Amino acid sequence: MRDDNLIYFVPLEQLEEYRDRAIVVRGVQAHEVIQALSGEPPESLAYVQLLDPEVELAPLYTWAEGLPLEVHLCRPLEQMGALYSLVPLMDRHPLRTSIPVLPGFSKAVRVATSLDIPVILNIGQPTSEEVDELIQVLEHYLHDPTCKVSIEFFHSFLVSLRQKDESTIWDIQEDAPDFSVWVDDNGAESPLRTSALWRTDGDIVVTYEHVLTTLSQEGVECRECAHLQKCVGYFKCPDPEYSCELVKVLLDRICEAAQELASDVAGYK
Ligand code: SF4
User: Fold this and answer.
1) What's the predicted TM-score (pTM) here?
2) Of the candidates 16, 103, 261, 265, which lies 20 to 30 Å from 184 by C-alpha distance?
3) Nearest-CA residue for atom 3 of ligand 1
């Protein structure tokens, strides 16, 4: 089903099928990405995801100036050294790195921020140890003067609280079911962040209304949660039984930081 309001996250193999839609293209080898896009990227291309930071990146040094790149670390502890090779790309491309929240990921985040590479955290359903690391990374982002770049979702969450806008973690992480569609190597489409809780019969692109209705019926923890408006059940995906006790501590800390920032700004007026 085609929907012109959606952005499609497509592998190189499916590029031709989606070339006329809003797309994010992903690939492993830089030269294959350039070749598949026939040299010049289409206007509908929002950005390119590179799935391996350890491949030869030189072809990108002279290609498509200004096109944003997102470089994924799959194994943060093993691959964080490869972040150094991204620095030359930043002269030509807006660039960020996607780092999964896995044990030890905070070390990779610190390497990235030391190189002034913005970070987007790929958050699943973090363990207690991973939430501890998330809180350390939040403190690094908030208080370490050497961190001068954004770490998402923290950055946009804070901005959203300050501006009192309606964006949610789903929007910030580009996972919103009414915004983005994942296309797999075989062309099958699904929401980026899937859960049995969110699915409706035969309808893969669910809406917030559906999510909220479902939460009010089934998601007891969400129904009572102070963060429902901003989180909208994000951390209940994919396992609705996941306990958010510790995640709520992290979200509380971000809300406190937003209040502290507001007080600081008021104090300067
Ligand atoms: S933090 Fe957990 S309980 Fe609260 S809204 Fe999000 S998913 Fe639901």
Assistant:
1) 0.89
2) 103
3) 222
